[in-house]
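Sequence in, structure out. First:
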Amino acid sequence: MGLEMFFTSTGLVVKAVLLLLIMFSVVSWAIIMFKFFQIHKAFSESGRFMDFFWKTKRFDSISSQVDRFASSPLTALFNEGYSELKQLMEAEGVKPDHGGVSTDLGGVANVSRALRRATNLEVNRLEKYTTFLATTGSTSPFIGLFGTVWGIMVAFEGIGKTGSASLAVVAPGIAEALIATAVGLVAAIPAVMAYNHFQHKIRVLVKEMDSFSTEFLNIVQRNIAGK
C-alpha cells in the first residue's frame, strides 16, 4: 500500500518514467530466461551431437537421426553442408559417401559457402533479442536520471511556492527523484550482466561452429572429393 500511495502521489512525468523502466525490466527478464534455456540447450546438445558425429561413420546415418539434436547449431551446419554435398553428388551421378564429386567447378567451395551461410543464420538466431538487453543496459540509467532531474526540479518548485526549504517540503520531491534513478539501475544492471554472459557463450558456440565446419570440409576433401 505504501508503494501504491507513493506511485499515485508522483507527478505525471515520473509516473511515465517509472512505467517505462518497469516495462524494460519485465521484458529484459523474459528475454534473459528465454536465452538462458536456449543457449544452455545449444551447449548441451552440441556436445551430444559431436559425440554422435564422431561415433557414426556415415553422413546418411547421421542425417537420419539429426533431429535428436535440434537445439544444437551444429545440426543446422551439418544439414546445410550435407544437403549441398548431396546436390553436388547427384549432379555428378554418384551416391553420397561413395566419392567422385568434382572440385573443378568449386564443388567443395560450394559446401564451404553453405556452411558459412548456415553459421551466419545460427549466429543471428542465437543473438536474437540480445540487442534489447544491450539497449536496456545503456538507456535505463539515463531514463532514470531524467526522472531524477525532473523530481529535483519539482522539489525546487515546491520550495519556491512555499518559500520554505524545510524537510517536509523538500523530501517528497527528492524521494521521487531518487526512486527513478534506483529503478533505472535495477533495470540496467541485470540486463548488462546477462548481455555480457550471453555474448561470451555465443562466441564459444561460434568457435565450435567454425571448428565443426573445418572438420566437415576436411572429411569431404579426404573421403569424398579424394583430396
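Second:
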Amino acid sequence: MKRYLAYFTFLLGAGLAFPSCNSRHDTDAHEQEAHATQPKPAPVATSPNLRDTLQLLAQQLDTVYREGCWDDDFARLMTVHHAGAQRLATVEIASGKDSTLRALAQHVLEGHERDNHVLELALTKQPPKGQEYRPGNTKDPFVRRITAALAPLRQPPPTPGPLDTDFATLMQVHHQTGVALAKVELDFGKVPELKEAARRIVRDEQAEIQRYQRWLKANPSK
C-alpha cells in the first residue's frame, strides 16, 4: 500500500511535466494564471470519504496547465484523472468489505499505473508542436468537449453508504468521464501511441462500468 501512496505523490507532483508545444504560446491571462496555479499533490484520504475524493479530482483537473496542444493536454488531464481513480481504489482496498470490489480496485491501481507510463513515454518521443487551440477560449470545440466530458465529476450522485456501494457508484461516474475524455483524444489527437491508449481506456473502462452496474444490481443498498 505504501508503494501506491508514494506513487500518487510523485505522479501529481512531477507527472505533469510533459514536453510542451513551444510555438505561438497563448499570451492571454489564462496562461499567466495557469503557470501560477499548478496543481498540488492531494493527500490520500485518511478517512473513507469517497465523495470528497471525487470532488477533489474535479478541482485538480481545473488547475492542470494546458499548453494548447491536443495530445499534450489530453495526456496531462488523463494522468490526473487516472490518479483520482487510484485514490478511490486505495480507499476501497483499505476499508471496503466486498471481495469483488476490492479486486476491481486492485485492477484499477495496476491498470492505471500502466496507462500513465504509456502516456508519459509517448509524449517524450514527440517533437515540439505548434499551438492547436487557445485554452482560454470557451467557444473552442476542444475546450467545450473537455468541459462537457468532465462535468459529471462536479455533481456526483448521492452516496449514503455503505462504502462498497459508494465506491461502485462513484467509480461509474469516474469511468464515464474517463471514457468521454478519451473519446475527445480520438477525435482530435494525432499521436498514434496516445490514440491507442485512448482506445484502450474506452474499451477497458466501459467494461468496468458494466461490472460495477452488475454489482450494484446484485447488491441493492438497504
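Remark: Confidence is low (pLDDT under 50) at residues 1-20, 22-47.
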